[in-house]
Amino acid sequence: MKAAEYDDLGKYIDYRLKRFFIEENRIRAKHSLEFWTSASLNDKHKKIFDQRYAEFQKDITTIIEKGQEHGIYSKRIPLKTFTHILMSSLDGISMMDTVLNQPITEEIIETTIKIFIGYLKEVK
């Protein structure tokens, strides 16, 4: 199944993970991870972290709400919890790729999309 066959959240996940197919992006992500890990030790960065988290969460929430309005997704989704799990999963997959050298594959991307989209559609 190609990414074009998925809805907007599937396209979003596809976009976020396929960036790691490009070596330059993998290197940038690794450096970014190292920076943010170190920066998290400094309390003055908390506001920046909170803002980045809120923006990331808002992007995903907006996509899901649009899907709910169009009857694609269940309206019984715990949005904050769902977006937190999705964000953590995408970050974890990218960390496995960039830090642990476990490459992201088309199969990983497609399975990730199927898992999350399936949940959004199946919640009663």
* Mean of pLDDT: 88
Number of extended strands: 0
Bin the strand percentage.
under 5%
Order of helix and strand elements from N to C terminus: HHHHH
Q: Could you estimate the helical fraction of the residues in percent? A: over 70%
Find the CATH topology.
Tetracycline Repressor, domain 2
Low-confidence stretches: 1-6
Please describe the biggest sheet, giving its number of strands, its sense, and whether it closes into a barrel: none
What structural class should be given to the helix and strand makeup? mainly alpha
Give the name of the CATH superfamily: Tetracycline Repressor, domain 2
Report the CATH C-level class. Mainly Alpha
How large, in whole angstroms, is the Cα Rg? Answer: 15 Å
Counting structural domains, the number is 1
Number of helices: 5
What is the architecture at the second tier of CATH?
A: Orthogonal Bundle
Distance between the termini: 25 Å
- The rough form would be described as globular
Commentary on this structure:
This protein is mainly α. The chain has helices at 8-18, 23-39, 46-69, 79-98, 106-122. α1 (8-18) runs antiparallel to α5 and α2 packs across α4 (79-98).
Comma- or semicolon-separated keywords:
124 residues, mainly alpha, Tetracycline Repressor, domain 2, 72% helix, disordered N terminus
List the helices and strands and how they pair.
Blueprint: H1 8-18, H2 23-39, H3 46-69, H4 79-98, H5 106-122
Brief rundown of the structure:
It contains 5 helices and no strands.
